[in-house]
Amino acid sequence: MSGPRPVRAPRGSELSARGWQQEAALRMLHNNLDPEVAEHPDDLVVYGGTGRAARDWPSFDALTRTLRTLHDDETLLVQSGRPVGVLTTHEWAPRVLLANSNLVGEWATWEEFRRLEQLGLTMYGQMTAGSWIYIGTQGILQGTYETFAAVAAKRFGGTLAGTITLTAGLGGMGGAQPLAVTMNGGVVICVDCDPRAIARRIEHGYLDVRADSLEDALRQAEEAKAARRPLSIGVLGNAAEAVPRLLALGAPIDIVTDQTSAHDPLAYLPLGTAFDGMAEEARRDPAAFTARARESMARHVAAMVGFQDAGAEVFDYGNSIRGEARLAGYERAFDFPGFVPAYIRPLFCEGKGPFRWAALSGDPRDIAATDRAVLDLFPENESLARWIRLAGERVRFQGLPARICWLGYGERDRAGERFNDMVASGELAAPVVIGRDHLDCGSVASPYRETEAMRDGSDAIADWPLLNAMVNVASGASWVSLHHGGGVGMGRSLHAGQVTVADGTRLAGEKIRRVLTNDPGMGVIRHVDAGYETAEHVASARGVRVPMREE
Ligand code: NAD
User: Fold this and answer.
1) Sign of torsion over alpha carbons 128, 198, 241, 223
2) Which of 283, 296, 308, 498 is the Cys-Cys partner for 472 at CB 3.0 to 4.6 Å?
3) CATH of 138-336, one of 3.40.605.10, 3.30.110.170, 3.40.50.10730, 3.40.50.150
4) What value, to the nearest 5°, has the Cα angle with vertex 51 and ends 282 and 176?
């Protein structure tokens, strides 16, 4: 049966495939498309503009069929969301290898990608959509929480209490912003042109209220700011209009960022277009739509720069809006920094990044037990403990219960091995998958985001994600993916992902130890190579071998 229908991952400890590695891939593919998880499941779109889990419904059916019958010494090949082959390998090899949206350099443009997509030859995999480890908005929540905590530490004495943040985009990723700001004690105004996005975030507990108008939003924000009361306010509108208007009103905004899907000009609503007519207009004349979207982004970014000139803390939140605005001719687009060089790179130097896991049992008690295990393993890490406690209280699971927390080199393997032991002892009801975002320390080349302003100028060197994927294959990951264009769009990034299954066996324990050591180890190595002292200290203190630093 091929065609749109509701999809949900099987739960429990019974296998429908030949082993847990295959079962895990099957459940995570289905979980990505669970209506609770995916933004537009009927179109197989998980998040991030048009980030898909499978190319089309016949491909989805073939993936499901093949994963159910795949042997422990076979590997399924997936080319941009379509299963294209099954090869005999061995039990240490990944069960699935995926390559999504990759194009040869000179052809790596949205125009060419869309031509090929229309021919049915490719799909956009984003980061965790096409690599089957998206866990809903929580996936980005901790990174967003950490980013706003870093903003608070840098500018506002360690808390956002008494500040107003202005942002736009309440989609799959952007929807984490309101909760991340209020968790840091602040007030936030979030503009989105899609009423469903606002309603969804309120329903999921990520957004507190919806204002009737921009003026109403500002009034509520000012009241909450004065009372130092955390509050998140959604407001319907076009950011290209709302942000300049708030600037003109002299609104007392302290922090400005944006997470509209600006990486894809066909997913950004231009001024003068009604939201309901957007998809049709983009389809009818993509070139004209792109030009208009870029012009609107230029206005939006110019207003962000205006807020910076007025003293606000302003940063690009990884959606390429500066690059698009510059393409429209706005020269000051890069006056404000990206969030990675501004706040995240020191963490990358320690091999830290978005470690995540999901309970294949479907039982939230499994996540509660792993939460306790993490607290027990890293008692000295106070911010981790605060996050785990807040997440336990405030994060509503979407699809299979899951958790994310940022762990570094020498930490991820310990957590992974503990989880595997918990599966083996029966403390958890079923195996756990352990993966991460591609937005990680050693897995991505993305000059507008993760590798912006590298110390040695190596921003666009893309050997690192390729090495990362090969390292994870060589170390025993259960599935490994290599993508192009995630986060920031075509031609602007290459990145790799891995997922490893803790099924309680000794073999899984050995694979986990290698993968979860070597994968963050790539982050340390990458940053040592680029000349970061913190990474050098981490490498020598924790025993990461870097030949050029050895006698
Ligand atoms: P999404 O497509 O799920 O949501 C985007 C939202 O922007 C939608 O709700 C849409 O209605 C809204 N929007 C579009 N144009 C608008 C406009 N002119 N005014 C107001 N609202 C508008 O995307 P997402 O998954 O939330 O990702 C958002 C962006 O962040 C993407 O560009 C993505 O690549 C990037 N991203 C950032 C990170 C990060 O760590 N910072 C991680 C992943 C993705």
Assistant:
1) negative
2) 498
3) 3.40.50.10730
4) 100
141-144-147 Cα angle (round to 5): 150
Residue length, the chain?
Answer: 551
Question: Please, which residues have CB within 8 angstroms of residue 215's CB and are 6 or more apart in sequence?
Answer: none
Place of tokens 């991340």: 180
To the question of whether residue 87 is assigned a binding role by annotation, the answer is no
- Whether 405 is a known active-site residue: answer yes
> If you search the block for the tokens 């060589």, which residue do you land on?
474
Which protein residue's CA is at the shortest distance from atom 23 of ligand 1? 48
Q: Is-contact 94 75, C-beta < 8 A?
A: yes
Indicate the burial class of 69 (C-beta count within 10 angstroms; 0-12, 13-18, 19 or more): exposed
CA distances from 507 to 9, 212, 268, 355, 520 (A): 25, 57, 46, 21, 20
User: Which residue shows structure tokens 């995630």?
Assistant: 486
**148-178: burial string, b at 16+ Cβ within 10 Å, e else:** bbbbbeeebeeebbbbbbbbbbbbbbbbbbb
pLDDT tens digits, 57-91? 999 999 999 999 999 999 999 999 999 999 999 99
For residue 261, what pLDDT is reported? 94
Q: Is the distance from CB of 355 to CB of 404 less than 8 angstroms?
A: yes
Query: In this structure, which long-range contacts are made by residues 542-547, counting pairs with CB atoms below 8 Å and at least 24 apart in sequence?
Result: 542/409, 542/410, 544/409
539 token code pair: 């490498």
Of 94-103, 128-137, 148-157, the poorest mean pLDDT is in: 148-157
Angle at 415 between CA 93 and CA 451, to 5 degrees: 75
One-letter amino acid identity for 422? M
Indicate whether residue 238 lines ligand 1 (CB < 6 A).
yes
Ligand 1 pocket member 50 (CB < 6 A): no
The phi, psi pair for 403, rounded to 5°, reads: -145, 150
**Atom 40, ligand 1: which residue's CA is nearest?**
318
- Residue 442 Cα to ligand 1 midpoint, Å, equals 24
Residue 376 CA to residue 363 CA, distance in Å, equals 21
